[in-house]
Structure formats: structure tokens, C-alpha cells
Description:
The protein is an all-alpha fold. It is built from 2 helices and no strands. The chain is elongated and about 55 Å long. The mean pLDDT is 89.
Amino acid sequence: MKNDQRNKYLGFINIAFQMGLLIAAGVFAGIWLDGKFPNKFSVYTISLSLAGVFISLYLVYREVKNLNEDE
């Protein structure tokens, strides 16, 4: 296995950790805000978790695009 190929695999592992951390941060921030400002539908948790998902997807798109351009 070449070092170049290993670096690509590490890049994908990094993407997975980034996604997990961003989504988890959104969820925990939303839970905290819902506790601080109670509402009927947990609006902050839903909104921030979805924002974390969309930001993660955008970052994945950018990273995969960069990995493909490096080839």
C-alpha cells in the first residue's frame, strides 16, 4: 500500500470524525438551549442538529472534491 493511498484513507477517517463532532456539538448545544429556553417542540435541538448535518455534508463534499483533484 502506498503512502498516498494511506493518506486518502486517513482523510476519510478524518471526515467521519468531523461529521460526528459537528453533529454532536449541534445536538448538545440544542439540548442546552432547549433547557435554558423551554419550548414545546425542542426547536433548538432540531434546528442545530440539522444545521450540523448540513454543514457536515458540505464539508464532506469539499473534502471529497479536494481528494479527487489531488489525483
